[in-house]
Fold each of these.
Amino acid sequence: MGPDVECPRTDAMLDGAASAVERHVMQATGTHPAPCARFCEATAFGIEMRRLRGLLRDALPHVEASAEASHMTDGFRRQPENDFDRLANRIRAELHNAKVVRGGSDSDRPA
């Protein structure tokens, strides 16, 4: 989290003892209390991961089309696998792993 982000949980925990300036100093030095990492940073990380997976979902059709076009240029001799095929497979694997780990699709969550 950036130093300009408010953390109501930590503020409540400190009973208002730390002003915004003191909190920024604690964040900069890495001494900001753990509840912020557990509640704020973990949530921010999850949001960023969903955003990145959304980008992968958006990119997959384009990568697959590029793979197909690359095979058109070789006269559909269809080499076993090229760089585009490998990239598409890696994207599919990442999206599949995300579903398995989370126990379902995250496509209904906001990006």
Note: Helices lie at 8-13, 20-29, 34-73, 83-102.
Amino acid sequence: MDRTGEIPEYLDELASCGSGWTSIHEVVFCEPGVAANPAIGLRLRPDAPLPKGMKSIVHNPRNPDNVPEPLCASARNLNPARLAAAVKEFGGGVPLVRNT
């Protein structure tokens, strides 16, 4: 399932309620092999508003690297260097991490 448009829409939702990047704990780049295709995910801070349709997020200590499906989007043609540059420029200190 291609969820490419949903991450930007959620970022727009966060911005509209005044949260924006302050709600994001980490931006996650899942390289091929971890995911079927490269993917981008968001790990939220505990007090972050949830995207429409999500009622809760379960943090599993046995799988701390998990990114909930509604917060993960396919990124088939992603350039990792450009993603890193964008997060660095616009992310306000939010780290970019790689799931390898």
Note: The mean pLDDT is 75.
Amino acid sequence: MIAAFVLFRRLPPPPPRHRPPALDTRRSVKGLHEAEDESQEFGDLHAAIRTARKAYQTDGSMPDWEAVAQAAEAVRQIAP
């Protein structure tokens, strides 16, 4: 998840109706895929990451990091 976040932070703001360079996009999506796989046992976190990835792949909208952070915090509180 951190790798995906760092890659998204490095992306320059896209001009209207344009998407970031393909290589950066692929790396960012790969990071979200990995985070999604690793979070399968934590339902809400998994759903937040999946929603973020699908939205980014579909229309290029930046992930809702606040929703992901809230889901991660909830997992952190219950995990040993």
Note: Helices lie at 2-10, 22-38, 43-59, 65-78.
